[in-house]
Known about the structure:
The complex is a heterodimer of chains A (737) and B (336).
Chain A: H1 2-17, E1 30-39, E2 44-54, E3 61-67, H2 79-84, E4 87-88, E5 91-92, E6 101-109, E7 112-113, E8 118-120, E9 133-142, E10 147-157, E11 166-168, E12 171-174, E13 180-181, E14 183-185, E15 196-198, E16 213-222, E17 226-229, E18 232-239, E19 242-252, E20 257-260, E21 264-270, H3 272-275, H4 278-288, H5 292-296, E22 302-308, H6 316-333, E23 341-345, E24 357-359, E25 362-364, H7 381-392, H8 408-426, E26 430-432, E27 436-438, H9 440-445, H10 466-488, H11 490-504, H12 511-523, E28 537-539, H13 563-573, E29 580-591, E30 598-599, E31 605-606, H14 621-625, E32 632-642, E33 648-654, E34 659-664, E35 670-677, E36 681-686, E37 702-704, H15 713-734
Parallel strand pairs in A: 1-16, 22-23, 23-25, 28-35
Antiparallel strand pairs in A: 1-2, 2-10, 3-9, 3-13, 4-5, 6-7, 6-10, 8-9, 11-12, 12-20, 14-15, 16-19, 17-20, 18-19, 21-22, 24-25, 26-27, 29-32, 30-31, 32-35, 33-34, 33-36, 36-37
Helix pairs in contact in A: 6-7, 7-8, 8-10, 10-11, 10-13, 11-12
Chain B: H1 8-18, H2 20-40, H3 42-45, H4 47-50, H5 54-59, H6 63-72, H7 74-108, H8 114-159, H9 168-200, H10 207-218, H11 222-250, H12 255-290
Helix pairs in contact in B: 1-12, 2-7, 2-12, 7-8, 7-9, 7-12, 8-9, 8-10, 9-10, 11-12
Amino acid sequence: MRALVLAPLALAVCLAAAPALALDAPTKLVDYDIQVELHPDTKLVDGTETLRWTNPSGDRVADLKFHLYWNAFRNNRSTFFKESGGQLRGDKADVEKGWGYVDVTSMAWNGQELAKGFRFESPDDGNPDDRTVLSVALPRPVEAHETIELKIAWKGKVPRVFARAGYVRDFFFFGQWFPKIGVYEPAGLRRRTTSGWNCHQYHANSEFYADWGDYKVSMTLPERFVVASAGAKVDEKKAGGKKTVTFVQKDIHDFAWTTDPRYVVKEDVFDPAKDLPQEEVEKVSKLLGRSPAELRAGFHPVTLRFYMQPDHEKQWLKYQGAQKWALAWFGLYAFPYPYAQVSVIDPPEDGLGAGGMEYQTLYTVGTNKWLGRWPLNKVRFPEMVAIHEFGHGYWYGLVASNEFEESWMDEGVNSFTEAEMCDRKYGMFLEFPFGVGFQDEHTQRLIVTSHDYDPIITSSWGYASGNSYGRNSYPRTATAITQIRRMVGEERFWRGFRAYAERWRFDHPTSEDFFDAIQAGAFGPASPARDAAPGQATLTGASVLGQADVVMPLKTDNPAFTAREYRGLIRRTFYGTGFVDFRVLEARSDELAGEFTGFNDLRKATNFTEDLKDKKKKKDKDKKKDKDKGPWETRVIVGRDGDIVLPVDVVLTFENGKTYRTTWDGHGKWLRLRTTYNSRLAKVEVDPEQKVVMDGDPWNNARHLKDWKGPSAARKVQAYAVHLAQIVFSSLWAIGL
Amino acid sequence: MTSKKSSPFSAGLSSALAFPRLAGVLWLLLAAVGLLVYVALKGAVKPFDDGPFREAILQGWSSWGMASWIGFKSREMAVSMPVIYFCALVFFLLHLYVTAGVLRVLVLGVHRPVLRRVLSEGASLFRPTLWATLRFAISLAFWEALLVAAPLSLFEKLAGDDPIPNDVWAVTSELWTVVVGAIVLFNVMARYDLARIALAKDDAPTARGAYRVAKERLRGARPSAIGLLLAWLVVSAVLQVLFTNLGIRMNPSTGAGLALFVVVRQLGFFLLAMSRVGFWGALMAWEEARRPVPLPMPVWKPWVPEKVAAPEPAVLEPAVEPAPEDVPAPPQEQLG
């Protein structure tokens, strides 16, 4: 009875309190004390862990769920293997020798063995052969808010690396490597209406989700191995040719480590006094309306360790620069990094299956030796990966969204911040000789060249294909967030963004939490949308221009983009497969007839003959006399394909150099502009500042009227292309032909 | 004719300066094919004037302009590509034809009329040149496979299973590929170029014969031939990089600027063509120095009968009669 009363009340309190609470530390529900011994020759691991778990809900929990992620690599019947076809990001599984597993050999609670209650579950696809979710029936339920202690023993075999974790030669990467308890979500968390376990199978496209807690991990392995780990090393003991190294990290939900005798370790420190750019502090101070002192507070020195392969040693400087910039940027636009260290891991070139992956206080990158040499040293792929993977330390790490169910909150938000950081620091992240290159944001924007079959918000295994998962989770989300930013303006966007980050750090947000935070920052808390008039809008008449031939000032944010349009955009992109394509449908300027011709009000024929038998043709004097003197009637029609409604600027440029700008709110399918003016229309441009980044085809956004003269960009491109061809052809001379 | 005392490189420089019209013929070929490519691309680049990136492209490189063109207009480009591939094939064949004629004209030392002469001489040499080029391609493939690819497989085996990336075997393989690959290429190239010179000089009527002649020329002197090849390759590369850089930096944004850009770039290609003529001149001078010294030819003289001296009067010397005692006295005639 009490539960019936309290539960809805608790739910209401949680939902009401959600916008206001910001956590300085997570609610910790787990405490892991793990000991593991690695046998490098056999690739076997023996592990024990003491897990203290707290029931976060008011329920009595009768069973426990554990992730056994490495069983995805157990055989070709696992869900992961079936969905992925035995490959991830182009790396293939070694089906002859590379299988791995993790087996819980014992689990005891209060001295009582629980192994009899073990059962594998497949809550997502019902695959009876999948072993990545272990359900443990308990002899008695765990009471509400009770903390239990489990002693777990397990054995594992390290798979050959192709999907994040594994080995190649003496390089070992341990990610998601131990029996890891799932998340028991009480009602109210992530807007759940009922409590329950959130413990999904390991899918080809999914990543991870876990509870916050403290970790202490001791690894025993041969002395020659260099160990890199999340957290800080607190102890090292050597005996009999082996060493046991202990690391501790608090307030995290994931713990990874790696070892390789070949690691070359480089250390540095992020020192806010030196590495926090003053101009950036001032810029953000104006943007967010906070004082520089307030922004600087919370920054502290962070130890940076780079574990490099010997053949990439010099490239650590690339990672160092990227890492320091990322620490500065995130600290200003989100919140200062709370941990004391970051470890950056460089896997060997044939172990890149472990590369490009995030864990807390540690992440892996990936490069090859050519990227450190001219002319590829400005192809900033290593830097981009470092910024991206460190960014995951925020989106998924500190703001711990559920990567299984809402992959966009991690990958998409991170892709957005990655592009912002890369383009700000490097200009062009893909830079080739002779000044040719591309910005990161532009490569992401190319996603609009084709339409989607899935909404952005789809469970990671629910997309039509791996390609759809990749498109929607990464670039489509990043482009949609960029669109929101362009529409609401810089100040409003970043204030909402920082508010989201600060509110949801150390917590588990959902999609709506992100949308609410941005909406509150952009339009004020819970602002209803203004109603816009439906149907097409027309602007007519000479009064539009008349004598006031001025260029309207450029707007930085658009008052026609209200909370209503914002929610419409969310609905059609994040919850739908919508698209938008503005285009110029018609653009013409016709000289008005000069002399009056026809019947006047007195029924008198003027400038033509009534006599139908008169075969004399009246010479058209207008042709020569008043040609090209105007005025002209200009008519422009702009259309909108797709179902996303966004306001868009339309600019008319006339031959006399004057321009006319207006903003169409995007409602209705077309906008017609009509005016009479004493100069001919030269060109029409829709969205000249490219604020509509989701436009499905920017190439139909402009029309130049055919007799407008000016330098030709087409000829320039043509000339350069021809010269490129001539360079290629003349290379025959170089090879002696 | 080159002075026996000047080096082949300087002989090549002299040729380059002395035969600008030959370079002009080469350049003309390049310009003509460039024009074909220009026409082929007309449709593909039209959106740059009609679309929203006109001003940005005129100012210089536009990341979103070019990225979106690649993303949104790849179909227009794809339509042009077959024509461009066709242009490449046409250029290749015409190039063989024209360069054969250029070589022959260079051998003959003809300064005018060049174009007509190149075309007519090229006609007779085209077929053997084609065969020689085919042999070049096959030789190159064969020697690269034998001397580069095969050792690389061996290195891979020696490296064992799971070799450490970029270890000594990997680095050795890379260095081997570059160094030995280049040596093989230049060797095959040198023989091919000398074979073409042999064809131009009529030292052999067929590609096979020309290759034999080339082999003879190279005997004991490959390094110097390859050195000459490398030197002129460097000259070409420097010209190409310089003018490409200059062209990029010009970044024309007006019609006049674009015209100047075209002129400057074509000047670059013309100089490149001159360097190619220079190379052939240099190689010809090198080859001249290696030609075997010919046996002196018998000189024909008109027959002039020899003057016969009047015989001296005969001097009759008495016959040596036998001594009387030697000869029985003749019987005395008795008269009775």
